[in-house]
Known about the structure:
The protein is of the alpha+beta class.
Amino acid sequence: xxxxxxxxxxxxxxxxxxxxERIDQSLLTLEQAPAPELVQTIFRAAHTIKGSASTxxxxxxxxxxxxxEYALEWVREKKxxxxxxxxxxxxxxxxxxxxxRTQYISGGEYDDCSAVVAEIKALINLPxxxxxxxxxxxxxxxxxxxxxxxxxGYSLLSLAVTLKEExxxxxxxxxxxxxxxxxxxxxxxxxxLPAAAAAGADEDSRYSRFAVVAAAGKEIQQVTxxxxxDSDVQSIVITPFVPGPSSVxxxxxxxxxxxxxxxxxxxxxxxxxxxxxxxxxxxERLDHLMNLVGELLIEQTSLADLSAAGQRNDPAKVLPGxxxxxxxxxxxxxxxxxxxxxxxxxPIDQLFNRFPRLVRDLxxxxxxxxxxxxxxxxxxxxxxxIEELSDPLIHLIRNSTDHGIESPxxxxxxxxxxxxxxxLTSYHEENQVVIRLEDDGQGIDAGRIKAxxxxxxxxxxEKAGYLTDQEAIHLIFEPxxxxxxxxxxxxxxxxxxxxxxxxxxxLNGIIDIETVPGKGTVFIIRLPLTLAIIKGLLVNVSGRVLxxxxxxxxxxxxxxxxxIQVVQGEQAIIxxxxxxxxxxxxxxxxxxxxxxxxxxxxxxxxxxxxxxAALAVDEIIGNQEVVIKxxxxxxxxxxxxxxxxxxxxxxxxxxxxxSYLVSH
Length: 664
């Protein structure tokens, strides 16, 4: 009887993720400090993946890891110098393994890995068949670049170029064509050549065919017409490029998928069922929860006994006992709540460990020397927040590597070490997690930021006149803002930092910037530990009880009506020397006005990401912990609400989305 492999699918994916992460981290360490034990660690991880993939019928992964394992065995036996070429080849093999994993989970067609295999064989001097040109598996940095280009309105194109056989100096013509493609299309994201020249052929023949992924501001027809007519080009086939499974080009044919050998023994239905999200929980935590449940059962029995005694005797005599049991049950429930919340927590190093590779790739692309230092990886955070935090941190790291850290020559002129440092730190602070991203680069020039925002029409001259340096620095989060003179492979389109603000806002986070020109910049992100249970501030607005998350509340103040000022036609107050926009919450929510008996106005100063606003309410009730419940899709889009909760009196209270209220 055949074993039902799908029952083990989630376990296999979890183990696969762990082993791929181990290979990634070990390769990074091996590049910095070669050691035999690191090669052994990578070998063991590859061997584990090969065995489990073979068991699951995932032959594509098993075959690729077999080649990687063979290459590592060659490294162990021959002990060659650990060169950049070796590390880059192993990284490309790792990227191919990650792509196969993604395709296994999604149920898509598997990518062809023959070019990677040929590269491995060429590295260890084994004969390999001539390989077709394939569109490259985009690295994380290139994939992000492609996504940013698409978000900025560029079209992603793949170009398959074949030179004529009689073309002389194919390598030179290859580089000239790349320049022409870039001039016509706008930006080249990635280029792919055959993995190696065919046996007996000269190196120049390798450049007779190549594939390009480009971001173009023009239609395919326009690009095709402008690239036509080169006497040395046999054909150029241009098709839309969709980031994902790579494609291959053969001869003059169009780019088309190439499967790796016979179809997999697993069908799409077996592979494509979505993996259930899982969290590993220590036995110690589960034992603690079980003990708490046991104590609750004991207290339930005590309560039942007191209830029976009250029915037999005078109920007043059992009231003290009921009060004691209630207090103890409250303590247990509080511990149980904290214990359950901890099962949702993951160490943040599961996220941080993705970034050393990103920094390495970016540093190589930019020609800089950069070291990433990670601290506080053991800090725990809700898994939902960790998953959403990846993109904002990637954008901040890209910003630091491109705009923050200077080139080695400039750093040497300024008396700094040629190698720049980016430090990523996390720690708990009260009921929040703080993440600091610090670089020792050139810092942020507020004057330059203001001038760039003016030239792009992001702010008016009037507004520029009263902006403080700190407010000017926060303009980097505005859509379309960039100080880059030209669009580079890493940045310059003005979409990255805007994404940071929107996604941190979605997580109910706050971001601050500290910078010293010439010394460096620190981005400080503050996030709630979880989005499931929050401490909320209860306020009364037009007779309705509403809740504002406490992690968005910066301050509660009372003012007299004559303290309200008008700035640029809008109401505002002066808070600690800063102009803060003022809004009446009843007007924002279209509630009717009520008579106000107090001579002062209660204000809640609310922060979200980098913005601040004062919200006028009728009454401050107090704060308490609340469980956020979804409103459901049937209510439609309610941007100003993040959910609802049930109060102790059984009534429903709406929870306001501070991020939306501050930005609208």
